[in-house]
Amino acid sequence: MKRTLGLYWFTNDLRLLDNGLLHKAAAQVDELVCVYCYPQVTPFMRHYSQEAGLNPLRRQFLDQSLKCLNQSLGDLQQCLHVLDAPALSALVSLVENLGVTHLFVSEVSGSDEQQAVARLKQQCPQLTVEQYAINHLYQPQQLPFDLADLPATFTRFRNQVESLAVDLPLDSPLSLPPMPDGLQISGCSGQRLAEPEIMTPFSGGEQAGLAHCQRYFDSRRPGDYKQTRNGLDGMDYSTKFSPWLALGCVSPRTINAMLRRYEVLYGANESTYWIYFELLWRDYFYFYALRYVERLFKFGGIEDKAPLTSYYAQRFQAWKQGTTPFAIVNACMHQLRETGYMSNRGRQLVASCLIHELQIDWRYGAAYFETQLLDYDVASNWGNWQYLAGVGADPRGSRQFNLDKQTEMYDPQGHFIRRWHGDSTQAELDSVDMVDWPVGPLKRDT
């Protein structure tokens, strides 16, 4: 009988614990090759972000996560092959050159990955493709509705699914099929895993993620999460699970299991429920991205209703560099560039500023976040930007925040603004408009 060869394409599932797809691979094939295709800066991303590449901090967190996964696979006599090439061409080459019979890939929400899988099926019809959703509280088949009937708002989604049971996380596999003898893969890049490290509070990888989650639930911070979650700075005001969730170093089901154990020990309250609530938002945006595919990136959003915004190069650069007339926005943008992270409250404020005060097409902000955030997740990032721009999952239209009022609420003493040098404002934001006509300055209201 012909030996079966599996290709496991790691995407946003960089872990062994609670990885049902890896268990499937272990049970179905005789030999296994594990690969990861490094993120490519697409023309779309380059155009809208006005950046040539990813923030070094985002690259570092990813590289640390890949290194950790490679070490874990090594304990099972396996190896992670990191390919610095577009996913489709790299995968087609591997399937054809190695004689791959099975492809295993998480059911990801990104349209690029979905298109790569669809085209791979077309070009390699003999290939058996196994996909499984492993980065969510709920499986698609658990939902009480078809994906085409996804509720138009998160509240309606939550009301229908929050009573469903969340499965317990799976153990890590005890063994994996071996690699083929004499395996050689061209274009495999290992140098990324050995770049000098930049000091940051976040260390990538499954072990670091699990340790962070355990420290959080060993504290009493979950019990007051709802009261502190809108903080702007520091590691203690919110869970900080998102970087590891975004890369799949830790699964939502693992965090949910830790949360339930905390509630057994210390009691459940509104704050512990709110942690589950935030995990459920991630699920909603995952299904939202699967439902709307390319419309996640359209200017007019899911209903094709274009906002009254445009593109102003000087304003966008001032927003990115933190030199707008709005101190709280500047501080948040400086924090993002220097740490690769920004609070949820900060993200709402800077997005509101870009869309409403600066009147810029929301896609420029979403793409810039994609290049900068340690916790970049395609569904949550683009779904939230659509939500705030009024072209997504919110029938009430766009969300505009009063930046002066928000500053008074969340930075009344100005500590955050001073720490992140938010007062480096410029009074005149424009000298020319989008077609180089002279314009008057944009000033903040007094």
TrEMBL record:
Cofactor note: Binds 1 FAD per subunit.
The keyword Protease belongs to this UniProt entry's keyword annotation: no
Biological process (GO), any one: photoreactive repair
Keywords, comma-separated and alphabetical: Chromophore, FAD, Flavoprotein
InterPro entries (UniProt xref): Cry_DASH, Cryptochr/Photolyase_FAD-bd, Cryptochrome/DNA_photolyase_1, DNA_photolyase_N
Record PROSITE patterns: PHR_CRY_ALPHA_BETA
Domain of life: Bacteria
GO molecular function: DNA binding; DNA photolyase activity; FAD binding
One Pfam family matching this protein: FAD_binding_7
Residues in Photolyase/cryptochrome alpha/beta domain copies: 4-137
Cofactor dependence: FAD; (6R)-5,10-methylene-5,6,7,8-tetrahydrofolate
Keyword Flavoprotein (UniProt): yes
Residues noted as binding FAD in the record, renumbered to the chain: 225, 238-242, 278-286, 375-377
NCBIfam families in the cross-refs: crypto_DASH
Function description: May have a photoreceptor function.
The family this protein is said to belong to: Belongs to the DNA photolyase class-1 family.
Name of the featured protein: Cryptochrome DASH
